[in-house]
What we know:
Layout lengths: L1 H51 L1 H23 L2 E5 L12 H15 L8 E8 L2 E11 L5 H4 L5 H10 L13 E10 L1
Helix pairs in contact: 1-2, 2-5
Amino acid sequence: MKKYVYVFVLALGLSSMVMADEIDKRSKQSRIVSGDFMLLLKLELKAAMREGGPGNAIMVCKNRAPKIAAEISEKHGWRVARTSLKLRNPLNEPASWELKVMQEFEKRKASGEEIKTLEYAEIVKTNGKKQFRYMKAIPTEKICLQCHGTDIEEEETAALKKFYPHDKATGFKEGDIRGAFTITQPM
């Protein structure tokens, strides 16, 4: 009997190590992809700001951000998106697991963790299939404040009301958690 228990415990330990390696490998991939998403979005936002100010940037977030997410999703065969506790676009509403992670990010930030290090990864079974889930916090940067801050110009406020009548994504300060990139990979 002891021999079988030992083999089971050994197998369980190896299984945990394999799982940890898989989470680490997929987290690294997801970190790169979310970084690429952030970079592409930031480049387009800065270009739009130079060309036409914050009003142009609103249109980048409205039109280009979902397309960037769709292009990256298609390229990798994953679901790549953004979400937040304070939504602008209702299509970005967090799933229950994403909501829990976002709330945990806020707690971790409040306890002193740097936003840039806030990430989460797990492997779960959904509908009988394994999938990898990953989230990476998005820090509120200075460029974000013109449309997400506390002192938004009248022109941008009007545009936000027009395109996002139920907008809740204002009142942020630099260094707040604006939201998170969220990735789901089939396994």
